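Saturday, quiet lab. Running sequence design on the structure tokens for the scaffold JK sent over.
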């Protein structure tokens, strides 16, 4: 499954487009500053919120594709002029782009992506990667086994075979949100311990989540306390992960729940 950025850039190698971005907002609006879509002559990639706003933006982008002198910035009052109930104001930017802009666009689009480290190539890990493909994330997917990863990966995912698996913790990008769900409880414990040691030294992992039950975490707490970790340090671990109260254990449901939990963490920037 391709990420939104990959779909845009691959299509851009074949034909030019107008890159439409939300430059500024005021009041109630469907998407925040930074949201974007790419308008090609016969299709679009992405969305700035749908409705009449998006319809008018696509029409103006088509004009720009044939008339380079058309306006590159437009303001829209959603209530008075477009009849949308949001009632706010949106300023859109329109830029003609082509294959010559690929490197610049890739760097710009990925600049705001949040790093996620996913330990475990099991059923939930695979389901999470499919959900993450649609989100502004840079995913570092790690497993100790030789072949847990699929042949085809979203453009925002890179894989690493690490043995021992906890050795990868030291190389994670600062600011990574860490999700731990390996095939082995022993591996999970070692990964958690490595994350806690990194937090003790650098304090640069804003979220460390462990899949499992409250009983599993109670057992882990005892073992981690025996390794010398304090109650304050253990409070940095979130376990179980996912939205509270959700009892459905299907991997796809867990994946959506965990993704929603990550998106609720500050700061979150729109793509």
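Result came back. Writing it out in full:
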């Amino acid at each position: 499954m391709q990420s939104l950025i990959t779909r845009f850039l691959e299509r851009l190698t074949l034909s030019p487009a107008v890159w439409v971005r939300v430059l500024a907002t005021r009041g109630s609006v469907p998407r925040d500053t930074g949201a974007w879509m790419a308008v090609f002559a016969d299709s679009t990639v992405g969305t700035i919120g749908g409705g009449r706003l998006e319809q008018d933006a696509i029409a103006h982008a088509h004009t720009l594709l044939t008339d380079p002198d058309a306006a590159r910035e437009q303001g829209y009052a959603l209530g008075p002029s477009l009849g949308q109930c949001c009632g706010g104001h949106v300023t859109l930017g329109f830029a003609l782009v082509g294959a010559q802009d690929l490197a610049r666009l890739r760097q710009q689009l990925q600049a705001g992506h949040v790093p996620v480290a996913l330990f475990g190539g099991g059923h939930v890990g695979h389901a999470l990667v499919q959900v993450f493909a649609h989100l502004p994330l840079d995913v570092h997917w790690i497993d100790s086994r030789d072949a847990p990863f699929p042949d085809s990966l979203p453009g925002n995912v890179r894989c690493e075979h690490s043995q021992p698996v906890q050795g990868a913790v030291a190389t994670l990008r600062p600011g990574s949100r860490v999700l731990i769900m390996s095939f082995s409880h022993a591996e999970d414990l070692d990964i958690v311990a490595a994350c806690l040691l990194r937090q003790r030294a650098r304090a640069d992992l804003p979220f460390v989540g462990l899949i499992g039950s409250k009983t599993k975490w109670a057992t882990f707490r005892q073992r981690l306390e025996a390794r010398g970790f304090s109650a304050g340090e253990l409070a940095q671990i979130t376990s179980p992960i996912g939205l509270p109260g959700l009892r459905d254990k299907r991997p796809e449901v867990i994946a959506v729940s965990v993704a929603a939990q990550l998106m609720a963490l500050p700061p979150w920037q729109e793509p």
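Notes for JK: Helices lie at 4-12, 51-66, 102-110, 123-132, 185-201, 214-226, 231-234, 251-263. The two ends are 18 Å apart (CA to CA). Ask whether to fix the surface positions before the next round.
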